[in-house]
Amino acid sequence: MQSLAPSSTINLKSVMRTPSPLPLHHRLSFTINSAASRFDSAPNATNPAVSAAVPSTTNFNSGSIGRNRADWQSSCAILASKVVSQQQNTEKSGGPDNITVVNGHKTLDLVPIDNNNSINLPKPLTITDLSPAPMHGSTLRVAYQGVPGAYSEAAAGKAYPNCEAIPCDQFEVAFSAVELWIADRAVLPVENSLGGSIHRNYDLLLRHRLHIVGEVQLPVHHCLLALPGVRKEYINRVISHPQALAQCELTITKLGLNVTREAVDDTAGAAEFVAANNLRDTAAIASARAAELYNLNILADGIQDDSSNLTRFVMLAREPVIPRTDRPFKTSIVFAHDKGTSVLFKVLSAFAFRNISLTKIESRPHRNRPIRLVDDANVGTAKHFEYMFYVDFEASMADVRAQNALAEVQEFTSFLRVLGSYPMDMTPWSPSRDD
Predict the structure, then answer these.
(1) How far is the C-alpha of 336 from the C-alpha of 413, rounded, in Å?
(2) Strands 329-336 and 387-393
(3) Is 232 within 8 Å of 259 (Cβ atoms)?
(4) β-strands 196-197, 185-192: how paired?
């Protein structure tokens, strides 16, 4: 039996990159354009082409498309029966090769669809296929950088309870996992209260087209971990993430440890490395959960130099959240300008004039043009460095003040992009328990 398949194209560009915060039912409304307003059968030796007239457009929200395979097959069968009827009425117009004419187009006989047979028809998309992933509290696949026991895993659990956390070996992999629909969200650190910004993730925010949909702040509680039976005096090396080593520098000295410090990719990875290689002369700085996962002893608890050690993580998704004004929101933007550093004052004044508080400003080198030259050519005297500026401010994009501020900022900038407008983390913070 000849199988029928709709020859149509689906425009998903509007869903993947929504330029403005439209209502959800507007963002998920799509139209399938039928190619040449017909269903085309797959050509073969005995039946090269079959045409049937159908409506030119079908809207997902109108309910005119069947929501299951049986409905879709029934619709095709009805269309097929209409074509057979038209063929019977136009048999006399056939040529010497018994080719009939339907609606002015030559066609061979069409075999109607039998619903009792298994036909390999494509399943139509429904609105549920295009709905966004579940929100907070639902089961999500959340990507994070590191291995189980990392602080990023704890942040993912705080942001999305009961989620399925997916470890990634690099920050880039976490971004790509969401873009490729392998994960629903990514939770990545952007700044620490002691170590400052994680610059790599700021660069990746600009390189990728994901949206910031939330933030979570996580207190960092470091522990000194070693294999069972190993005492502190046996340790001559400590390994961990570079920021963790810096955050525990004074405490390690106070413990009387004469050790070398070695940096690795992440804290939980350091604990895993010690356990996997049975290193009895090496300790790791990581979380208490990492000690539990990798069967290590805690030689010292709460070894961070400052109890106010907090890391801020952002949650990333393919689609932005709809800004609101019924709760505190934060908006993150990135911009560049061509007029030198004097324009920065004008940009910041757009927020000050409207009493909008800035919570962060970060500058990163402009990779496409890192140096501004006097004659604006490829050769010449360096005038100043070119930067991209990342700014966080406390206002929702649904707030008229924020909209007017960005409209003014756009007048002074050569590039402006909103990375996300999202709910602020209002969780009360308290220092680490043992400090």
Answers:
(1) 6
(2) antiparallel
(3) no
(4) antiparallel
Instruction: State the Cα–Cα distance between residues 93 and 103, nearest whole angstrom.
Output: 11
CB-CB neighbours of 55 under 10 Å: 8
pLDDT digits (tens, 9 = 90+) for 18-52: 444 433 333 333 333 333 333 333 344 444 333 33
Burial zone of 303 (CB within 10 Å; 0-12 exposed, 13-18 middle, 19+ buried): buried
Question: What's the CA gap between 137 and 121, in Å, rounded?
Answer: 36
Contacts of 324 (CB under 8 A, 6+ apart): 396, 398
DSSP designation for 321: P
- The residue assigned the tokens 């997902």 is 60
- Catalytic, out of 39, 175, 313, 329: 313
Active-site entry in 107, 267, 311, 331: 311
Measured CA to CA, the distance from residue 394 to residue 416 in angstroms comes to: 18
| Catalytic residue list contains 311 | yes
Does residue 312 sit in helix, strand or coil?
strand
Residue pLDDT, tens place only, 344-371 = 888 899 999 999 999 999 988 876 654 5
Q: Characterise 40 by phi-psi region: left (phi > 0), alpha (psi -120 to 50), beta (else).
A: beta
Residues with Cβ within 8 Å of 277's Cβ and at least 6 positions away in sequence, in order, are none
Q: Judge whether 329 counts as a catalytic residue.
A: no
